[in-house]
Design a protein that fits this description.
globular, 3 domains, alpha+beta, D-Amino Acid Oxidase, Chain A, domain 2
């Protein structure tokens, strides 16, 4: 069987690797000159344990399965993997009911070695942390997902796969190709085409456009949000030992600012979530009129904005003010000061939004004949990537 995979992020590469190891003739097409340049190479690096996800959902099931696969793969390939642990902190008593609900969800999801902590227990894990109670998931880990992607690409090539970078795809069509009968064709922007028995599209930030240009429904629409990070300046990393997260508020669309240890020992704070004016817009000055028009003038995005405009204004304010950013982060690490933080690289989240303005929370995978479409794969997609590949190819 000839399988074409569109997209060279971790999900596309994991899928190409698994298909090649199963004996398929695999071609992976990536529009950039290298792999893992967007969401995969710009995420937090956290190998999530499954605390947050609705029990029984694809996210919950594939995160737990995928996290184990990533752990074993990193250990087998001698890649960075550090179980630094995650602390979810209730900053005030008002958050205790939400913490109770999160604990019940995490236990339903089988998060290993989970512990409920009081204020003293919090500080035994993270001496500089503030808060009244929390949950500790000591097996939550960090890795370098770009390095994992490159290693999996090496595996795919060793198994016979062809990886073609600088190969942007225009659309996927199904038709009659010579004497082979009805096959699927992947048309590239440069005018060439690749025929296949099966196509798997992992388009990330461009998932909706590729689908629409191939005759699929445009919704859910990708609405890009830039996540802006800061990091602790050199010499202040001691303030945070591992991962410090807030208790999620189900009334808000995103998690909020948190602290993340990276495999190089640096501590990143963030991300916030501000509307991106380009799908690959990592700076405030990055703008593409088509991206703005497609995302923010779409009725689903307008409904989302009306529902959460106060949250959006707050996120923009924190992006514009280091003091405001630090003020929020100090709820969890009170010793933090504005002078302790410096800018860090940003990422863009490919968030799918339904026509009614609802954020698509779960992974959304679809099939149309011989074409499989990944329509929504936000966090924890990197953690779950190897399990999502199993789901797509199963």
């Amino acid at each position: 069987m000839k399988t074409v995979v569109v997209g060279g992020g971790i999900l596309g590469v994991a899928t190409a690797r698994l298909a090649a190891l199963a004996g398929d003739a695999v071609v992976l097409l990536e529009k950039e000159p290298d792999l893992a340049l967007h969401q995969t190479g710009r995420n937090s690096g956290v190998v999530h344990g499954g605390l947050y996800y609705v029990p029984g959902s694809l996210k919950a099931r594939l995160c737990r399965r995928g996290g184990g696969l990533v752990r074993d793969y990193c250990r087998d390939r001698d890649l960075p993997y550090d179980e630094c642990g995650k602390l979810v902190v209730a900053a005030s008593t008002d958050e205790l009911a939400r913490l109770d609900a999160l604990e019940a969800r995490a236990r339903d999801n089988g998060v290993p070695d989970l512990r409920r902590l009081d204020a003293a227990g919090l500080r035994a894990v993270e001496p500089a942390v503030g808060g009244v109670a929390g949950l500790h998931a000591p097996r939550t880990a960090i890795t370098d997902f770009a390095a994992v992607t490159r290693a999996m690409a090496d595996d795919a090539v060793a198994a016979g796969a062809s990886i073609r970078t600088s190969s942007a795809v225009r659309r996927v069509t199904t038709g009659r190709v010579g004497s082979a009968g009805a096959r699927t064709r992947v048309e590239l922007v440069d005018g060439t085409a690749v025929d296949a028995d099966r196509v798997i599209v992992c388009g990330g930030l461009h998932a909706d456009r590729l689908a629409h240009d191939s005759g699929q429904p445009r919704a859910p629409r990708i609405v890009p949000f830039r996540g802006e990070y800061r990091r602790l300046r050199d010499g202040r990393e001691w303030l945070v030992r591992g991962l410090i997260y807030p208790v999620p508020d189900p009334a808000l669309p995103f998690l909020g600012v948190h602290f993340t240890r990276k495999v190089d020992g640096s501590i990143w704070i963030g991300p916030n979530a501000v509307p991106a004016t380009a799908r690959e817009g990592y700076r405030w000055t990055d703008r593409r009129c088509r991206d703005v028009h497609d995302a923010y003038l779409w009725p689903g995005a307008l409904r989302l904005a009306r529902r959460h405009w106060r949250f959006g204004v707050g996120e923009i304010g924190r992006a514009a003010s280091r003091r405001a950013y630090v003020r929020d982060a100090r709820r969890y690490v009170p010793a933090l000061r504005p002078g302790d933080v410096v800018p860090a690289p940003s990422g863009v989240r490919a968030q799918a939004v339904d026509a009614d303005g609802t954020l698509v929370d779960d992974f959304r995978l679809g099939r149309d004949g011989a074409v499989l479409w990944v329509r929504n794969a936000p966090s924890p997609a990197a953690t779950a990537s190897m399990a999502i590949a199993e789901e797509l190819l199963g």
